[in-house]
Amino acid sequence: MMYFIGLSCIVVFIIISNNCLATPLDDYVNTPDPMFSWKRLQTYPFPTYTLFIMNMTSQRWFDDSFSSQPIWWHYIAITVPKNIRRYKTAFLMISSGDNTDPVPTSNPMTYLAISSSSVTATIWQIPNQPFQFWADPLKKLREEDALIAWTWKQYLDTNGMDPRVLLRFPMTKAVVRAMDTIEQFLLQERITVPQEFVVGGASKRGWTTWTTAAVDNTRVVAAVPIVMDLLNIRPNMMSHYRSLGGWTFVFDDYYEMNITRYMDNPLMDKLSEMVDPYSYFDRYSKTKIFQLQGAGDEFFFPDSEDFFWNELQAATGGSHLRRIPNTGHSIRGYEESLSSFYLSVADRIPLPSMKWTRTMNGTHGFIHVTIDFSSGKPKPTTVSAYQARTSDTLRRDFRQAKVDQSTGNIVANPIVWANTGVQFQGQSGTTASYSLTVSIPTDGYWLATFIQATFDGRQGTILTLTTETLILPNTYPVPECHDQECYGILV
């Protein structure tokens, strides 16, 4: 049996329009598509939960003359515990995969469904892939960043004629339709339908987590973007260039499409207005955000938050950050913190309140943290710091991997984040303060550091949070680039 979307898209559109000015992304996501449908493929009963495997068609993205895959379809796994206690909230993880993968027989988020006694789900094939663009002279079978980069190039080369070409549009729409599918299916099965969602995803899916929370901020009450902090795109990317004297090797798909030459082009600003989460901060005023990053990410840099974190904090009234040391873009070790965050959101339990300042003088850098545990907010159980030095004096580079310029090979970058202590500054009845002082290197290297605190969470979980990263000295090896000189090299 198949089900088609009814008035829910129109209702969501009205809600968004009443709260903020609709963008082309809103218009695309909330336009009803007769291709939307879903069906159940399989049911797997287990002693403590039931697993449902679904096939959902989310949309038609243009037609057969545009690409080899105009119809987007996705697998969805839904885990329903036998005894649902947290029935108001569900978790949706956005995942990758491609159309040649076998039908899933498990849900990676089942562990969270069991521990939280709530519905969890995973959607795959975000984006739907691989496929070809018929206008692509290479007729290349593209996936992941190769797809996104091609659509950016199409938008830029056609003077922004049709923003629907940007891949973030169908990626976001697919996730919104997944929430519709979950609601409609649970209603059919006479299972309590969640009133709200927490959405998460990594990398490209992390970006889609941000945009999903923006366009559907009524249902999405919390977001967990993982390894995606390229917000406020142009200044953030310019910091990358200045840090490396070029572009990280994992930007190769964008480099091949000449995207880096557009840094000063006004069309890049128009593109950013539609897909950059920075443009949607007014949508997150009621959204709890937990951003997870790897300290050695090959795509993004430890101080990316410099270009948006203060504004995000002001917009949300307090977002949360964890940077995990000694891990890269293939991040690991965040699952317990994710669970703890989700349980607090579902139970309406106050999350930790950490505020910090980062300053420096001519010889030292300082991080000062104040943790507020008033009104039921948790006290910290441990507070420490991590710091690392660059492996050479050529680049302000903390990635786990880099290009060996003599061979062109990808090699390990020997960056080690070491745990260090902090100084306890004192405690009042409702706050505790900690500080970190580090010497600014004078030997040509760069040093990066941040403070980490742990908190006891629901059901014995531990929530780990960190401050922004302070990089010393506050210098770059190269100046900003402009126009054609921004083509650069891959390093």
Automatic annotation (TrEMBL):
Pfam families: PhoPQ_related. InterPro entries: AB_hydrolase_fold, PhoPQ-act_pathogen-rel_PqaA. The keyword Repeat does not apply. Keywords: Signal. Residues 1-22 form the signal peptide. This is Autocrine proliferation repressor A-like. It comes from Adineta steineri.
